Amino acid sequence: MRLGLRLRLTLFLAALLLLAAGLLSLLVERGIQDNQQARMEQELAQQTRMANLRIRQAYYSGSGGDPQEFLRRSGRQLAQELYAYGGLPLTLYDMGGTVAGSSLQDGTGAAPPAGSPASELLGYALDNKVAFTESDGTLIYLAPLEGPDGQLGAVQLQYSLRGSEQFRQEIRRLFLVIGGGVLAAAFALGYLYFSRIASAVVRLKGAADRIRRQDFIAASPVRRRDELGELGEGIAFMSRELESGIGAMERERRNLQLAVDKLQALERQQKQFIGSISHEFKTPLTSIKAYVELVGMYKDDPELLGEAHRNIGKETDRLYDMVEKALQLSSLERYEFESRAERLDARELLEDVAGRMRGKAEKFGLRLELELRDAQAWCDRESLMHMLVNLIDNAIKYNRPGGFVRLGSRAEDGWAVLDVEDGGIGIPEELLERVFEPFYTVSRDRSRETGGTGLGLPLVRELAAKEGGSVEAGRRAGGGMRFTLRLPLADGRSGE
Questions:
Q1: The whole model's pTM is what?
Q2: Handedness of CA 296, 298, 299, 305 (dihedral sign)
Q3: pLDDT tens, residue by residue, 137-167
Q4: Which of 138, 374, 444, 460 has the greatest CB tally within 10 Å of its CB?
Q5: Which DSSP category does 336 fall into?
Q6: Distance from C-alpha of 203 to C-alpha of 272, rounded to nearest angstrom
Q7: In 3D, which of 450, 444, 484, 482 has the Cα closest to residue 464?
Q8: d(C-alpha 95, C-alpha 112), whole Å
């Protein structure tokens, strides 16, 4: 069965739209599923934190005593309160695995049967781990309970997954209905649009057939401002030329050979012309195909974009900072050629940086102190500014309210030494070297809270090494950290 040009073009467009709609639906469903999972994990974690906070509050506001006895005595009431506040069914277990209270039943009960999935999950939770499993459309989530002197027991939360699944099924149905409608409309519109192109091609073919029968035409068979119109003008021109040539041949038989030569030259021109037209014809088809693919790929759903914006907005700044610092790390090979070492007054530079960072320190309730002595460093100014800003920014982020950040400078044993000290939370001794590893953070929760990426200190170390210096981390005797940056002294060096 031979398909016409208009039908083939329309079917090709429909196939592209079908492929684009299918891929888009898969991506949207995957995005919705990931978003639902993230929201579920966030809600369960929040409920766990709320349970820990409420239990500790009840313990400290009560008579105190043995934590396990307190949990068994108050577990039922606490479970009902947490259920009323959070809306998720929950069960509280003591460290022996016994039910201390539940929103699903009255009184207390025994531990789950040994060897059952719930028993295995409970064992993980009592071992200070988070565990979960899915059963009959419900997610069973167990997490440790923290008491005044360590782990108090475990909390079990039940989260229904049926609503999420019904929502995804509704989205699939909408995609099928809307996608089918769009596909049908696109097929109809595409058929109408390509009908115009096919009609123009048919008229051009008819004109060529007339010319082949020596029924010459005087004007173009199509009126278009595109390559098909140019092709029609060319065919009309060719027709006029053929007609003129044949007439001259009939009028002047004595010039027959000349007419033959002219026709041969015209044939060569025709082949070249058709080759050029074929190439030009391919260009708009390629462009049309590209635009169709782009339209299919970027069919934005405003409601979906709004929901995605709300969920990822809180991570945007942290991701931007990570990308920026990762690019700086990866471009240090190139940066080496741009580095311009010069004589720098460490005292003056630290005063400048302190002035820039003082507002941020005051925002966090910190004192910015200076203990500066003269030291001339030999270093690239921009590199040194990057290092100091990263070190001071870390000292501000990982500090305590009412604390301090102290900047110092001195010359020592051929080095310009710059110190950044703080009275903050500090870093364990065994992790002092690991903080210079890319993407390593001592506390993920604290880094997420402050926007840390684990790239600032590695960037400082790399920049210091490029300048012929080093950076070291150490704990202060009174608490907090001291980062010591050593750079070559500028004594005897030329600033040219």
A1: 0.37
A2: positive
A3: 888 888 998 887 888 888 888 888 888 888 8
A4: 460
A5: H
A6: 22
A7: 484
A8: 13
